Automatic annotation (TrEMBL):
Domain Amidohydrolase-related stretches: 12-317
Name this protein carries in UniProt: Amidohydrolase-related domain-containing protein
Database matches in PANTHER family: BLR3681 PROTEIN
InterPro entries named in the record: Amidohydro-rel, Metal_Hydrolase
GO molecular function term, any single one: hydrolase activity
Length: 337
């Protein structure tokens, strides 16, 4: 919970990681390039007092997560997303076993999502069924630019991907988080193109597609898709830290999203440990548009409360309960199970 000027904000961090980018886990030069690129993004957009040294950044601890996200980071709950990247890391980038232990030790404060790769065929379908049962999955994180042998990615509109989306429907996995945005060395920018979301969001209208990083740098493409697909959400990871180094640009991105979507489909995310939620939340609550940014919808206190937690809480009713004191008195209440 975050409190400022008498206002209380229920906070859900919609996208955190528990990765292992250590030298020992890197399978090849591409694994090293991937985690070095992560660190480059983090270093460029983080206030100096919050920047870790590289070794800690490669592999941090369960205690780090609990301290940074919950003890000082104001989060009441967090969504832990997964990505394996088997071609780059010996034991997977997302350290799945440790992530599950962290989830179980967090006292109900973490919801862990699974993942799938459309190129894994029948074996992948079986694994998704097993993961859904073991982790009681409500969501998955998809990385369309991941390499697999000679393949350098897939599209969410591929027939193979549709098999997995149909299986998600069958298993009751409603939330499909898809990385669509900034590329990372050595992955290809076009493999993160957001256009395939237009197809799958139309064909699977009972699923929610949370587009992480809201398609940056293809913000305009994303907005034109999301404005016509009511089941598409804007995940604000990577967008948020620009509030520090490029606040005018941040205002433009938030303003465009509010204009084209609506205030109910923007989701706060720190992308921890890329960035820490504490300073992002403090700066966001204090943020106002610049004087020349007059054509965007208002960024009111109630809108900020929705973005910081109430919106994503609606998507995860099995594990997130919003206390009555945080409900918006004059708006539609957040429904609870």
């Amino acid at each position: 919970m975050y409190e400022k000027d008498g206002e209380k904000y229920f906070v859900v961090d919609g996208h955190i990681h528990f990765w292992d980018g250590s030298d020992e886990n890197c399978k090849n030069k591409y694994g090293h390039q991937f985690i070095e690129c992560f660190y480059g993004y983090s270093s460029a957009l983080t206030p100096p007092e919050y920047l870790w040294d590289y070794k800690k950044y490669q592999k941090y601890t369960e205690a780090d997560v609990m301290h940074d996200v919950f003890e000082i980071g104001y989060a009441d709950h967090a969504i832990l997303n997964s990505v394996h990247l088997w071609d780059f890391f010996h034991h997977g980038f997302d350290r799945e076993a440790d992530a599950w232990a962290l989830t179980q030790n967090a006292g109900g404060k973490i919801t862990m999502n699974g993942t799938w790769d459309a190129r894994d065929g029948d074996e992948g379908i079986k694994q998704l069924e097993a993961d859904a049962k073991r982790f009681d999955l409500q969501g998955v994180k998809i990385y369309t630019a991941a390499w697999k042998g000679d393949s350098r990615g897939f599209k969410m509109s591929d027939p193979e991907a549709y098999r997995y989306l149909e299986k998600c429907q069958e298993l009751g996995i409603k939330n499909i988080h898809v990385h669509k945005g900034p590329t990372l060395t050595p992955l290809d920018k076009d493999a993160f193109d957001v256009s395939d979301i237009d197809h799958c969001a139309t064909d699977f209208q009972d699923l929610n597609f949370i587009v992480e990083h809201c398609g940056l740098p293809r913000l305009e493409d994303f907005c034109w898709i999301a404005t016509q697909e009511a089941n598409v959400y804007a995940g604000l990871s990577v967008v948020m830290p620009f509030i520090h180094t490029r606040p005018h640009y941040f205002g433009d991105v938030i303003g465009e999203l509010l204009y084209w979507l609506d205030e109910d489909r923007l989701i706060f995310s720190s992308d921890y440990a890329l960035w820490q939620p504490k300073w992002l939340i403090e700066k966001f609550v204090d943020f106002n548009y610049f004087p020349d940014q007059t054509e965007y919808p208002e960024l009111t206190t109630d809108v900020k409360k929705k973005i910081l937690g109430l919106n994503v809480a609606k998507l995860y009713p099995k594990t997130i309960t919003v206390p009555e004191q945080f409900q918006l008195s004059a708006a539609e209440p957040v429904l609870q199970p």
